[in-house]
Amino acid sequence: ILAGGETALLHGHTWPDDDIMGASTVVTCHNHPAVLLMDELGHRHKEPAWVRASFTDEARKKYPKLAQDARLIVMPAFNELTGGTAFNALEGQKLLGPLFTNGMVDIAEARIFTIDGVDLGTVGALKQYGDDNEKGRKRRATIADRDARRRGWTE
Fold first, then answer.
1. What pLDDT score does 41 carry?
2. Mean pLDDT for each 10-residue chunk of the chain (155 residues)?
3. Rounded distance, CA 38 to CA 33, Å?
4. Per-residue pLDDT at 54
5. Dist. CA 33–CA 35, nearest whole Å
6. Phi and psi of 152, rounded to 5°?
7. 130: Cβ–Cβ under 8 A, 6 or more apart, which residues?
């Protein structure tokens, strides 16, 4: 815990201690957040991102010391080789760590920021650019149909 209890750092793979959850800002890194942007043609671009989120009422029940305005910051991976989990895509439904898997963090209203601090909006709003939106599903189906036709030409 740093700065007189204002900021706490943790990895995020286990349940945090009550003292850590008493900080006004909790910083974690376990999920290596990213944002996925996909255009109408199905081109995908994933970028590392910062995530700032609020805690849910469920978290306040488990952690009575948790302040009403406490926030969670999820740090991006600082190495391209470690990959990233796009919070606004299908893979974002498989976030790791007990805070995420037990509904302690409000994911839909979490804000995503680029590495240099540009606010891209909420995870919920950015889902339209992820791979689980209608355009993305249609594009994947079209590609699968095309590939099946091509296989038929060569058989």
1. 75
2. 73 89 90 84 84 95 92 90 82 81 92 93 85 52 60 58
3. 17
4. 96
5. 7
6. -65, -30
7. 36, 38, 86, 88, 89, 90, 92, 136
